[in-house]
Design goal:
single chain; alpha+beta; Arc Repressor Mutant, subunit A; 3-stranded antiparallel sheet; 8 helices; 7 strands; rod-shaped
C-alpha cells in the first residue's frame, strides 16, 4: 500500500520534448537553464498539492529553499504564460491540471475494476463452496437419512469400481467440472489414503475419504473444514486433469 501512495504523490506525465514548447523555449532563451529548472520545481510543487495550486505569497519560501531569488520565481510564474493566477492569489498550471484530471480518472477506473474483479472472485469461490455436497461439511449428522443413503450408494460403487490409484494403465476420464470429479473420486477412493502438495499441508500428511464422504486428516484423525476441503478438491481435480491420457 505504501508504494501505491508514494507513486500517487509523486507521479505526473511529462513530455520528453517539453523544452521545445514555444513558451519554454522563450523562458530558456531569457533565463537559461536556471529558469527552466525553476519552472519544473514549480510544477513539482503544484503536483504535491491537494488541489494543484500554491499561494503566491509563499514565493520567497520557494526561492530560499531552492537557492534562487523571489524575483526569478515570480518572473517564471508571470512572464511566460506557463502558469495562471486565480482570484485568491494562488498560481496553478492548466496543463498539469488537465493531465492530473486524466490520471485521476484512470486511477478511479482501475480501483473500480479491481473491486469488481475481487467481487467476482469472491462470488465464484462462494459458489464453489455451495456446490460442494454436504458430505464436505460437518454440519449434517451421520444419522441423517440422506447421509445413510449416500453411504450405502458409495459402498456399492466401491465394490464395482477400481480405485483411481490403480488406473495407471487406463485412460483417465477428463472431468468436465469439479463436482463431477468429486463424485467419481469419492465413489472409487473411499478409505484410500492420498497426499497433497503445496496447499498448506506437509507433503507427508495423509488424507482419506471416510464412509460418510468426509475428508479426514489422518495425522490428526479429524474431519477437515469445508473451506479446507475445497482446497483439497481443487488440488485433486487439477492434479488428475493434468495427468497424461494413457499415462
Amino acid at each position: 500500500m505504501s508504494t501505491i501512495i508514494q507513486k500517487d504523490t509523486c507521479y505526473f506525465s511529462h513530455d520528453a520534448n517539453a523544452k521545445d514548447d514555444v513558451k519554454c523555449a522563450f523562458l530558456i532563451d531569457e533565463m537559461g537553464p536556471e529558469g527552466y529548472g525553476i519552472f519544473w520545481i514549480l510544477v513539482e510543487i503544484l503536483r504535491g498539492q491537494k488541489d494543484y495550486k500554491y499561494p503566491i505569497r509563499l514565493v520567497p519560501t520557494i526561492a530560499r529553499k531552492y537557492n534562487t531569488t523571489p524575483a526569478k520565481v515570480v518572473d517564471v510564474i508571470q512572464k511566460y504564460n506557463l502558469f495562471e493566477i486565480d482570484t485568491q492569489s494562488f498560481f496553478f498550471s492548466g496543463s498539469l491540471n488537465r493531465r492530473m484530471s486524466f490520471f485521476e480518472q484512470k486511477k478511479q477506473q482501475q480501483i473500480e475494476a479491481g473491486l469488481k474483479s475481487a467481487k467476482v472472485r469472491k462470488e465464484k469461490r462462494e459458489q464453489q463452496l455451495l456446490e460442494l455436497s454436504e458430505s464436505d461439511s460437518t454440519e449434517r449428522p451421520s444419522n441423517d437419512p440422506l447421509t445413510i443413503k449416500e453411504k450405502e450408494t458409495k459402498l456399492k460403487k466401491n465394490k464395482e469400481n477400481k480405485t483411481l490409484s490403480s488406473e495407471s494403465g487406463d485412460k483417465r476420464e477428463i472431468f468436465k467440472n469439479l463436482q463431477t470429479f468429486k463424485s467419481h473420486f469419492i465413489a472409487v477412493n473411499t478409505n484410500v489414503p492420498f497426499y497433497t502438495k503445496g496447499i498448506g499441508y506437509e507433503t507427508t500428511t495423509p488424507f482419506k475419504i471416510n464412509e460418510s464422504g468426509f475428508i479426514v486428516n489422518l495425522k490428526s484423525s479429524k474431519i477437515i473444514s469445508k473451506e479446507e476441503a475445497l482446497q483439497i478438491w481443487e488440488y485433486l481435480f487439477n492434479f488428475y486433469q493434468n495427468q497424461k491420457i494413457g499415462a
